[in-house]
User: What shape does this take?
Amino acid sequence: MLLISFFSHSQQYPEAKKIPVTFSKHKFTYDDNYSWMEKTNSDATTSWVEAENSLTYSHLETVKKKYSTASKIKEYDFLSTNGLPTKRGEYFYSSYTIDRSKPPVLFYRKALNDTPVEIIDPYRIYKSNNVRLTSFYPSKNSRLIAFKISKDGGDQEEIRFVDIEKKKTLDDELTKIKFSGISWNYDKGVFYKKNSNVNTFERDSTYQLFYHKIGDLQSNDKLVYDTTKSESNFSFLTAEDKLIIIETNQEETERKYFYASLNDENFSLIPFASNHENGFDFHTIKNGKVYFSNSKSDFGEVSHFELANESNVAKIIPQIYNSLLVETRFIGDYIICKYKTTAKNYIHIYDTSGKFVRKFEAPYGMDFSIKFLDTKKNELYVTFYSYVISYLNYKLNIDTGKYGPYFNDFIEPKPSLFTFDHFETKIISYKSRDNKDIPITIIHKKGLTLDGKNPTLLEAYGGFGAVYGPNFDTGLLTFLEKGGVYAYAEIRGGGEKGRKWHNDGRGIKKINTFNDFIDGAEFLIKENYTNSKKLAITGSSQGGLLVGVAMTKRPELFKVAIPKFGVFDMAKFSQFTVGKYHNDEYGNPEIENEFNSLLEYSPYHNIKEDIDYPTTLIITSENDDRVPPLHSYKFAAKLQNRSAQKNPIYLKTLKNSGHYGKNANYKDHITEDSEFYNFLLYHLNN
Assistant: This one.
């Protein structure tokens, strides 16, 4: 099934044979020539993927001879500042890279300025450079830590345990963990979700909640909750002395809420919040009160009711119009609300009754993460950062309103990589085709001439109501330093401007998401930042789909497209892994008009035989069990196997990695980051 094809422009592809398999749904019928690639482990598919990788990596080596960003990225990393440790329970935790070819190691401190002590080294446990410590959860008294490990980059994980004082990994080992947090029952055991899939890329079957007693075998774990029959999704947590379970039906039109006493060995479930709509977003239970937000507020508010009397609802923190409530944290005796506006991020601090206490603002263009509270001094610790400014640690005095930078023996002052005005950040809006104001952040070196000739990278996400802020990236710094322009568009489908912003870019309105992105590209060209021969687009996951749609809808607009971990066959997306949970976001293929709306933008189905699409690097992972690589395989094969395609199409399949790429250790991270920017600079400047 594997042939080598030679095109007139000398690009060689491992060509996959067309083997038509008829697909029919509603009134739509087509021949899927590459459905055989859905068998990702077949000899035919694996041989083709290996040949594709050989071609791609050969090209990346050629690219590196002209543009090599790895050394500069490493230099910027070395010179960048570090954020504060994470405080969970009683102690402070930090991850450090000891060996650049091995996974980071987790350390802890009992006090913020103590010498860090090693507690979890994934390499010592698994003897693999590719394992990732994905998250960790201290017990009630902070003596034990449950931690999750991904062994191959995929979403299926293992749970292990370590005794902090003894610095010893326990024998307990829980497997087949997927899409699960870990919640402690004091210090006695943990709750976790278990997956039942036999094949990696089949429809997800994470339907069971178990309880594990420390020191016991997993085979003896107690089944607490099971949605196998209804195939409903659910989440869980513990708060005060209760286990909380939140179940959402398949159609995502109804939620059920239950709690159980942790002192009840049977964990008998009692329903609560039964009279609230699907938009009821549970926060926590504190002092017998249920704190929540609901969809009646577009920008976010906080209410509560007594657990024993859900009819007595009190709104304690009203919404602030045009300020999006993006995070609600309950720390000590405070409710800390983080807000986002078009150009500013800030926090309001309230007491648990909703009384306003204090406001703190982030500098223009910067975001921040809330770290922890020093209850003795009543000081809140936060870390500020932006796309181009590394981590600045501050403590904010809640009593006085005074604030200032924080340093200690391990977080020392460093000169900034660049002066704060070295790069110019603009946070503005452009008009969509239906006259909506779409926020966009644009960054470039100060004084850059806007002559329409600048290499430019446009990125967005636009899905699931997600809100993305700036993320400090030393790879991006290398691109900007070489005269690049970076833009991030807050398109509909995301949640940056409230619930309605999300709803206007989901389901049968999903096309608005893609139109907004394309309109953003046209805006950058119109405003003379760049031109279609200098413009690249990228995005990951939902953003990968976004790039696939944009490049197939408007190929003449872009020079380069780099979709990462994207879903491209929208006729079949719900048949694999977690796709069935996304019918509300994209449309339900079982409903004819929604299926037709999917076909309107499905990248795989919108490839035309007579179009030369932009130079493209499709990135996927062989173990991505969230968006399976078969989408990227089929998309790449169909793009390549057409005589009209003159611009090169590359497929890069990462080995031993999952949905977040190959980043288990620093060496792999640098390789992936530098290859991305090398490719970008090479093709935008050629």
About this structure: The longest strand covers residues 168-178.
